[in-house]
Specification:
The chain is α/β, with parallel strands linked by helices. It has helices spanning 7-16, 24-37, 39-55, 90-99, 126-133, 148-163, 186-194; strands at 57-58, 65-66, 83-87, 105-108, 139-142, 167-170, 197-198. It folds into 2 domains: 7-55, RecR Domain 1 (Helicase, Ruva Protein, domain 3, Orthogonal Bundle); 77-201, Dna Topoisomerase Vi A Subunit, Chain: A, domain 2 (3-Layer(aba) Sandwich). The strands form 2 sheets. Strands 4-3-5-6-7 form a 5-stranded mixed beta sheet. Strands 1-2 form a two-stranded antiparallel ribbon. Helix 1 crosses helix 2 (24-37) and helix 4 crosses helix 7 (186-194).
């Protein structure tokens, strides 16, 4: 049977499925909505996707998304160099920034250790993180998720920190096992952040 939709519409539906949690039916509904009711929004979306795809890079210090060599947080001279929070994703940075009064620095792993998927220290920016620990950092606050991979990642970071004589702590109270930080409510995350413990105490 011939395709029901024109090739351009089929490609749009397939492309929308690249978004997390969007399956074929959700992608089809979104495509229909844009075409039927929001052509101008569709053009803005297309333009912003092109700009982001060509203009975004990783910050050379923390690996957050940035338009220049440094992201806005790393470029801020008012933030402390003594505390470094290590997170799995940029979404975790946003969650901590909105829920706490933390004024230190960040390092974004862009994932978690998963040997079966070929994700090791190199893929998570291990050499860049190690170079950061040779600077002014006095405490590494590990804020990886409470999953098996997140715990393994926390252990790896803790060992690296100890090797460099840097205190390593881990956010604790209130973050559910198997949970990701970006889905934890702000009050719970703030308490977890304030109640962090040494990595070797867990």
């Amino acid at each position: 049977m011939a395709d029901l939709f024109p090739p351009a519409l089929n490609e749009l539906i397939r492309s929308l499925q690249a978004l997390p949690g969007v399956g074929p039916k959700s992608a089809q509904r979104a495509a229909f909505h844009l075409l039927e009711r929001d052509r101008e929004g569709m053009r803005r979306l297309a333009d912003s996707l092109l700009v982001a795809a060509s203009g975004m890079q990783h910050c050379k210090q923390c690996r957050m998304f940035a338009a220049d060599e440094l992201c806005t947080l790393c470029a801020d001279p008012g933030r402390s160099e003594r505390e470094l929070v290590v997170v799995e994703s940029p979404a975790d940075v946003a969650a901590i920034e909105s829920a706490t009064s933390f004024q230190g620095r960040y390092f974004v792993l862009m994932g978690r250790l998963s040997p079966l998927d070929g994700i090791g220290p190199e893929q998570l920016g291990g050499p860049i993180l190690e170079a950061r620990l040779e600077g002014e950092v006095q405490e590494v606050i590990v804020a990886t998720g409470a999953t098996v991979e997140g715990e393994a990642t926390a252990h790896w970071i803790g060992e690296m920190a100890r090797h460099h004589g840097v205190r390593a702590s881990r956010i604790a109270h209130g973050v559910p096992v198997g949970g990701d930080l970006e889905y934890v409510d702000g009050n719970t995350l703030a308490r977890a952040f304030a109640g962090r413990r040494g990595v070797d105490e867990i």
